[in-house]
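Late entry, evening session. Most of the bench is empty. Finally got around to the prediction I had been postponing all week. Sequence below, unchanged from the version circulated by S.P.
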Amino acid sequence: MIRIIASCLILLFVQCESGKKKDKSPISYSVQLAEAVMQNNPKAWMTDFRSKPRWGYVEGLVCQALVKVSEQNGDPKYYKYVKDTYADVLIDSTGNISGYKKESFKLDDINSGKILFPLYAKTNDERYRGAIQILRDQVTDQPRIEEGGFWHKKVYTNQMWLDGLYMGLPFYAQYATMYGDSLDFNDITSQLLLVKKYLKDGPTGLYYHGWDASKKVYWADSDTGLSENFWGRGVGWLYMALVDVLDYIPKSHGDYSELVLMFQDLTDAIIQFQQEDHGLWWQVMDCPDREGNYQEATASCMFAYGMFKGIQNGLLSDRYLVFAKKAYQGIFKNLVQVDQNGNLEITDCCAGAGLGPADNPVRDGSYEYYIKEKIRSNDGKAIGPLIMTCLLVENNPDWKVEE
């Protein structure tokens, strides 16, 4: 394995024909990462280490990134890969989604619906529109806590998790923009502000992973209902949810400015925990010196994505570029390497983490739990955000981000 050094990266080159003159042009990181995805996973449904096709949120995240690569670079093969080996494998001739069970009410199932908007726009295939509507119908019927927030899943009674905000709300907001009622924006913004009310930690500005409104589940504090720690990827899900939802909330909406402030305040909190020497973040964010903690890739990629997108969209000032660049450079210096096949590989990814359910006391939200979860390379929860981060950097050459 050859570790990529930020100050001395080995870039791949292609020959570009321009009349009779040939120039060498570097292949962008977004394309290199997209190519690695396709070479490592002959079918897009394989991108979350599955042996059988499944409608899953990780597959949807990676596919969303690849669609964006096609849109920005004009190469249809990444779009075709998503369409042919994910969407068309899992969506049948009537628009039903294979293996999907509405009655489970998993917010995770909603995330892959985001790729259906560009597929439908490009093809006018009513199968995609039907699948979009199936997922939107779940949003309508999703169980809620008394104050209106979505349960994360049916099995997680009265619980809101940071993960679920990203899984459900950007799709909900995009649907509301394209097909829905403007009153949906009230529901979307109120859920994010509800999380700010109950899950935000005052001293650090960070957010706890989960909250049980009933304060009954074993991992929840009996007084607050909160889980115990600040899990990096959990905060990353919230950060991406905010910046993506703000693509759709009208600026004239009464809560728009509140969401922008929430995003800005969370950015300020996140950069307080960015490590000075390597620009990354830890698995448990506020415990850098505690035994077993490690610099975790998925959270670091999510924070880089959120910062660069926030700057591009005018939600953050350019003064935040120094932190975004530090993260980008830190990722490529410390977490990205070239594998034995010459593909880019991203290391040190937390494979998965959650809270409960009641019959699984191992997932207790403790520090020890988070650091003992499996660590692997090329997890889609890092690949998707990293590809989208690279696209933002490549679309803004005036940022002068040096690898």
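Two things to note before I forget:
Residues 8 and 35 are 22 Å apart (CA to CA).
The radius of gyration is 20 Å.
Will write this up properly tomorrow.
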